[in-house]
Amino acid sequence: MVGMPTGIREIAMSTLRSPGEFELLPDPDTLTALQLFKAPMVVRYVLAVAMTVIATVVAVGLDNAVTIPNLSLVFVVPVVIAAVFFGLGPSLCAAVLGALSYNFFLTEPRFTLRVDDPASIWAIGLLFVVGLITSAVASTARRRADDAALARRQAALVRSYSRDIVAAGEPRAVFSRTANALETLFQVPVIVMLMSEPLGDFVERRGAIEPREVDIDAARSSLTTGTVSVADVYPFNGSRFDFWPVMTSVGNRAVIGLAFDPEERPPQPGTLVEIIASLLALALDRQHLRTGSDSVADGQGAS
Asked: Of 276, 33, 3, 44, nearest to 150 (Cα)?
């Protein structure tokens, strides 16, 4: 996708494998960085150490060949690379190892951690501080870039979802595609229901968690109050789903439920869920109008 216009590339990032089935793909521009950042922690630390070793070899070689006043800056390079690709921990490790390597190999007396020259102590301390600051800045920039890339992919998926439910032929297809979109966005168990007595007319579920009676009660409470019902909160202790109400203009009462892992719950999931809920409400209204128009047409044909 290199060279592809931005708008087309964003749409391509969210593909439809089949009608209503979504796949949230990594941004091609950040794919390598994401793969490295998601590597096992041990691998990231090993790579950070390896880069510091390479920087040490380069610095020692340069020191033997020419006189460079700011040779310590060579050790900043692995710190920056580690911060961008591996995260804050490996970057700090590279900063500490770089300062120690500079002390051991390039300051007098050599091949010992003892330092006789006060200027060398200052250089080592400055190198360590620069490494810490660089680690923090580069790691923060990496997180912000990843967040921005994720937001673009989520926006592309929501656009695809909105187009897809417009083409849905009947309510069950709308609910199925809504569940697919939510599962792709959040990677958690999902339930989407059109509520009536005693259970939902339409129930679309994704994931291994089946709704229990307490979950159904929490969903009904969310619809009654028009507010979000949070999992495992009084009076619905034991409920595993967060529920968002979906109120339409024609009286259909739907609810969206997401079962987040308490330790991995996103900070503000409501923004995306409410967008999906609004689109679902519009789709249900459209289905109702379509059904009403068909009924009127049939009545006129019979007369």
From this structure: 33
Quick one: residue 260, left, alpha or beta (phi over 0 = left, psi -120 to 50 = alpha)? beta
Sequence-ordered list of residues with C-beta below 8 angstroms from that of 240, at least 6 positions apart, any chain:
209, 212, 215, 231, 232, 259
231, 203 in Cβ contact below 8 A?
Answer: no
pLDDT, one tens digit for every residue, the chain (303 residues): 333 333 323 333 333 344 455 655 555 444 445 555 567 889 999 999 999 999 999 999 998 888 777 788 899 899 888 888 888 889 889 989 998 999 899 888 888 888 888 877 888 888 888 888 888 887 788 788 888 888 899 899 999 998 888 877 777 888 999 999 999 999 999 999 987 655 556 789 999 898 899 999 999 899 889 899 999 998 999 999 999 999 887 665 799 999 999 888 888 888 999 999 999 988 888 877 765 544 434 444 444
Distance from C-alpha of 206 to C-alpha of 171, rounded to nearest angstrom: 17
Rounded Cα gap, residues 276 and 269, in angstroms: 11
Instruction: Quote the strand ranges of the chain, DSSP E.
Output: 14-18, 21-24, 190-194, 202-206, 242-247, 253-258
CA angle 282/288/291 to nearest 5° reads: 140
Q: Which residues contact 187 (CB under 8 A, 6 or more apart)?
A: none
Report d(CA 220, CA 245) in Å as an integer: 9
Half-sphere exposure of 130 (CA within 13 A, CB side): 18
Q: Which domains does the chain have, with CATH numbers?
A: 29-146 (no CATH), 170-302 (3.30.450.40)
